[in-house]
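Continuing from yesterday's entry. The apo prediction looked reasonable, so today I'm repeating it with S-adenosylmethionine included to see how the binding region is handled. Same sequence as before; SMILES copied from the compound registry.
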Amino acid sequence: MKKPGEVFANASVYDPGIEAIVPRYDELHDALLNAPPQDRDESIRVLELGAGTGELTTKLLTRFPDSSVLAVDHSDQMLDEAERKLETFGDRATLERGAFPDDYPSASGEYDLVVSSLAVHHLDETRKQTLFDAIYESLVPGGWFLNGDVIRFDAPHLETLSGEMIENWVRSKGWREDDFMEEWEASDDYDDPSSLTDQLVWLRDSGFEAVTSIWQYYNFAVYGGKKSE
Ligand SMILES: C[S@@+](CC[C@H](N)C(=O)[O-])C[C@H]1O[C@@H](n2cnc3c(N)ncnc32)[C@H](O)[C@@H]1O
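Holo prediction written out below.
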């Protein structure tokens, strides 16, 4: 049985598969990479939650050549893919198996940056808020949390619109969505996205400042905030 967020039965098809089913996947990652205040040459410690096959991890380690990333995921098969991909970065990349918010983040005042992509929306509302509290605690003063994720619209017609947009995207990749899902054994039975507004409020409640959304394309958004100095 698949774990939340694995998406495909076989993790080796994740990289080509996710680009075919998540519109503007690279652009979402770009927004996550462009948003941190740190300069490229700074030596920063990053915690990545739900690293999957290490796509964003690779981009982070490349964008910040003096950084180190602790990449966490609860899926053995995703971590196996990530391990192969991240080998070239040596000890700058550390992979750990664990689940958030139960196991991570556990540190206090340790990370300059906490990032996540397409993973937090698997948690229910309460666990998202627990996670935001823990992330706040784990950051250094002035550190940032940035999340690129699926969001829910409170307006049903906008949910329909987002669904149609995804169907069109999959079609633009040469597939009918049903055929794609069947052929790639894709599904996500654990989705529980929250609205962007709720999450921005919860971030504020956790103590974050400068809480904001940076990028949005229909029901995908990049948002976050800063721990007070
Ligand atoms: C859709 S993938 C995204 C992977 C990667 N961040 C990306 O941008 O392609 C979601 C990942 O989050 C992991 N995940 C989901 N919920 C998790 C949790 N509560 N704890 C740890 N990992 C989780 C899944 O195993 C999966 O690898």
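Comparison notes:
- Helices lie at 14-21, 25-34, 55-63, 76-86, 125-138, 156-172, 177-183, 196-205.
- The domain at 11-226 is CATH 3.40.50.150 (Rossmann fold).
Will overlay with the apo model tomorrow.
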